């Protein structure tokens, strides 16, 4: 039964709230080991426990590719359906289908991103703290860390949208971040706003924060994808017209 008017608007709103909450809950469930260690990490930091904080860093680095990346890629599989207009898809079935199909690629990608970020962060802290005359290198490392972090939005979107090798996916995610920075950095700023609201109301992390950020990230990615596809089609038509005019000239001669 389809509702109209104010009742229809309320019904659609509750549908979207349910979709976002269900997807976010599945993401929290599948990445719960990482989230649990992250909460412990924040707790030991607050208590100034240096050794325990270091142990939590190792645990987080281990759990990130095993749990967080596969769960996030599955969440992007769900929001991809929504952005592309398929809002009636089953959240549970789509989530775990994406989790299963993309687990290997997200695991490998998670290992790559985690190792690279750890190495860059160590370099950044060393250059900034111990080599005052080489702090420019630390600044460069910080810029590279930001680019790598932002490229993860494109990485998860590509896992959900493309079928390509993991190497191509990581390379294209970074390249797309560099050549199309506006949409990606707008995703980062939008995510920062959403996280800021979540800090004010922590319960939102359980139900909405992850799925809202994923939806916004893929929305921006898909907009970039459509724009680039349109530009490629225009270039193709232009080349075909050019070749056609050249063929006519050769026939006339």
UniProtKB/TrEMBL annotation:
Alphabetical keyword list: Membrane, Transmembrane, Transmembrane helix
TM segment ranges: 21-44, 56-79, 106-124, 136-160, 181-199, 205-226
Name of protein: YesL family protein
Protein species of origin: Paenibacillus farraposensis
């Amino acid at each position: 039964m389809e509702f109209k008017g104010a009742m229809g608007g309320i019904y659609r709103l509750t549908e979207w709230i349910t979709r976002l909450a269900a997807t976010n809950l599945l993401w929290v469930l599948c990445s719960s080991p990482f989230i649990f260690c992250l909460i412990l990490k924040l707790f030991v930091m607050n208590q100034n426990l240096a050794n325990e904080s270091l142990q939590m860093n190792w645990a987080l680095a281990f759990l990130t590719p095993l749990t967080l990346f596969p769960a996030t890629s599955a969440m992007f599989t769900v929001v991809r359906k929504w952005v592309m207009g398929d809002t009636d898809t089953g959240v549970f079935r789509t989530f775990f289908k994406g989790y299963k199909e993309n687990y290997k690629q997200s695991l490998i990608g998670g290992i790559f991103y985690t190792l690279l970020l750890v190495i860059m962060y160590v370099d950044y802290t060393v250059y900034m703290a111990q080599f005052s005359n080489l702090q420019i290198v630390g600044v460069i490392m910080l810029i590279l860390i930001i680019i790598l972090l932002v490229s993860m939005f494109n990485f998860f979107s590509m896992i959900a949208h493309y079928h390509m090798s993991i190497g191509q996916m990581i390379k294209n995610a970074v390249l797309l971040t560099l050549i199309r920075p506006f949409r990606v950095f707008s995703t980062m700023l939008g995510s920062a706003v959403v996280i800021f609201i979540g800090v004010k109301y922590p319960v939102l992390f359980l139900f909405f924060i992850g799925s809202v950020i994923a939806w916004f990230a893929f929305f921006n990615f898909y907009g970039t994808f459509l724009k680039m596809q349109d530009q490629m089609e225009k270039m193709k038509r232009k080349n075909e017209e050019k070749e056609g005019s050249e063929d006519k000239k050769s026939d006339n001669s």
